[in-house]
Amino acid sequence: MLKAGVFGVGHLGKFHINNWMEIEDVKLIGFYDPDDNNAFEANEKYGLKRYKDASLLMDDCDIVDIVAPTTVHHELCKMAILKSRHVFVEKPLANTMSEAKEIVKLAKEANVKFQVGHVERFNPALLAVKDYDLRPMFIEVHRLAQFNPRGTDVSVILDLMIHDIDIILSLVKSNVKNVFANGVNVLSDTPDIANVRIEFDNGCVANLTSSRISMKKMRKMRLFQKDAYVSIDFLDKKTEIIKYKSPGDKDVFEFDIDTNFGKKTIAISAPVIKENNAIKMELQSFTDAIINNKATPVTEIDGYRAMEVAHQILDKINRNRIL
Asked: Which of 32, 124, 93 is nearest to 309 (CA)?
């Protein structure tokens, strides 16, 4: 039985507690949070032991689940890795690139399992196309959210857009060539809305728009590749594939069109969406990686690469302001 401790029991931390309690092979032994209000609520609701020393909780557990503010990710990750504990840390991996780089180095040297909480990787709308041959050459993304002061300790890039950056990097098997970005501070001290263009060495282009001051919510990604268009709605959990029909296609809506190459049949399909609890699924996958000694689905390297692109975007936004 693996013993787990949660570090940070605010809004998201409580979701983690709920899900750890449902995962077999794991026993949640306690939590650490310096905020007395958070700690009181968690203790009252779950009856878990509160540790007032993060180091002591790490000594007693196998799994360190860090759901604390980004500013303390490095400190807690480093402490856990040096104690040879397996680490799950919420995105972004760290507050600065130098901190992220040290975490990656330490995790490799310690040979521990490490996973970054890019929960959209486990969204059922994305999982519905995991077996489809995705080779996007143009990507369009809109991630819009209503304003919430709770998330403004980091920019909209590190708060919202980083989800899409991580997914795009996992889909496009090529290095980033150029980044163009503009962003505006509206209701906070960091960019609240941003538009970004990422160009890859293989010719793929990704356009991303993220806002946390929208009147409506939206989380959509559209992938365009040769002979196919894929639409993924992360919010409404819907996926659609439009492409030329192939002999193996079943349960599709089809119609014919005239092209310069003769008549073609278009097939529209909606892959089956299997409802899931994305947070529980990511924590379960982390547990499975430990038990079966296999790679985690979102490694510290993945977290680092997403942060690297996010910080390139922030640098471009800052330069544009100076100009």
From this structure: 93
